[in-house]
Amino acid sequence: MNRFIAAVVAGVLATSMANAQVTEQDLANDQADTSQVLTNGMGRNLQRFSPLTTLNKDNVKNLVPAWAFSLGGEKQRGQETQPLVHDGIMYITGSYSRMYAIDAHTGDEVWQYDARLPEGILPCCDVINRGAAIYGDKIYFGTLDARIVALDLKTGDVVWREKIADYKEGYSYTAAPLIVNGLVITGNSGGEFGIVGAVQARDAETGEMVWERPVIEGHMGTYKGEPSTMTGTLNATWPGDMWKTGGGATWLGGSYDIDTNTLVFGTGNPAPWNSHLRNAGTPVEGNKGDNLYAASRLGIDPENGEIKWHFQTTPREGWDFDGVNEVVAFVDAQGNKRFATADRNGFFYVLNREDGAFVGAWPFVKDITWAKGIDDTGRPIYIEEGRPGNPADAADGHKGETVFSAPSFLGGKNWMPMA
After folding, report:
1. Most Cβ neighbours (<10 Å): which of 114, 295, 379, 412?
2. Overall pTM > 0.90
3. Please, what is the end-to-end C-alpha distance for the chain in angstroms?
4. Looking at the annotation, which residues are catalytic?
């Protein structure tokens, strides 16, 4: 993967009003504003569509490089960020929790911030960062030691720096934050290490926690420093105390539907990976082995963190599909308000934006081995022999029956965003 950012000449590079602070209204209009890019996804609905008309399918072939900016050598690993642009400055995050401000016209560095990570961080799957968020006179991004940092847009100086969770317990943070009504919304990473997925909201000015919503049933949320409500019902779909380290990391971040005032986050795989330990390896009565709310999409009230609705894409998850994929708001041809999400399990889902109700699902991967399809309720029609075997059934008790899986554990679609 390339470790540099390239600018191209399109004849459309513009700057917004100098030194203007970014407002909630600016964020709400980001998808329509061609003079700047303030949000990950080019709008909080994550459509990644620009109304720019100067650049089109006929002249895109004429783009040529204007400048390039190196983020370091091979040791810096992957680069998965989306640039933001404000007041003529491009902001990008880099691996190992770094932030750069670059003159968008010349490619010259304006400032750089390095989080200076401690020893002992536990990033699951690379040391990347997936982006930042701008609001007011600050820019926000997360770090691999599970912190959220607010920097001064002009200088890169730290305004505040708060801990999302303890990196020594396996937590990290790689997603781009989301700003809604003056709140910085973050998730977490680390689902392979016995953590519990959560969504948090902080005051964008001070960094003070406003609410936290764990996404695994049995855990208690908080609101303004006090316990609020429990997520789900204790032991409804988890056996024993497995819920205490149930995974469900919210590692890809979320979207915001302004029409319904709803945050939408995907949740990752339940833990541990072995579904047979979670009462999910064989069919059970009702949904007792579903391990809510892992492998799900959650609609969350941004004011208090309460869960409005949920839809689980892979109940009884046993393949590490990690269904955390982004949820995109759109209006269909009939004028219905919908959500779309392409899950790593190989199925493309459409949900109702008002309540998260299932509308339909279609495979986008050939020869799926774990399910024959999705029924009218949105539940998978399982192919039980396509599930990884139970290690306890093996002669040595160490390795279950090997199966061929399509999609693989990397998914029919990984973190790469759709548009």
Report:
1. 295
2. yes
3. 20
4. 320
